[in-house]
Specification:
mainly alpha
Length: about 90
């Protein structure tokens, strides 16, 4: 039992980043599909970032409540991811 606890303590940052980062692909895919107004899966592998970043920091579609809701959630998700990274840099 002590070995398992020691293993978790030694790899806690990896576990936290993995657990928090797992749904990132899904959220980013949904956000990109709204921003680029497509249902194609190919948008997930295209390296188009300018419009995506603009949509994240400003309001591109003010009349679309799905976009507003997902954008705000995605901002929160990424801010927690950034805080997790900052905590890792400070304490690890």
């Amino acid at each position: 039992m002590d070995q398992a606890i020691d293993l978790v303590r030694a790899n806690i940052w990896f576990i936290l980043f993995f657990a928090w980062g797992l749904p990132l692909g899904y959220y980013r895919s949904r956000f990109r599909k709204i921003v680029y107004q497509t249902d194609s899966w190919i948008i997930n592998i295209k390296p188009i970032f300018v419009k995506e970043l603009r949509a994240l920091f400003v309001t591109m579609y003010p009349d679309n409540p799905d976009y507003i809701r997902l954008r705000n959630f995605y901002r929160l998700y990424l801010s927690i991811y950034t805080a997790l990274f900052a905590a890792w840099k400070l304490w690890a």
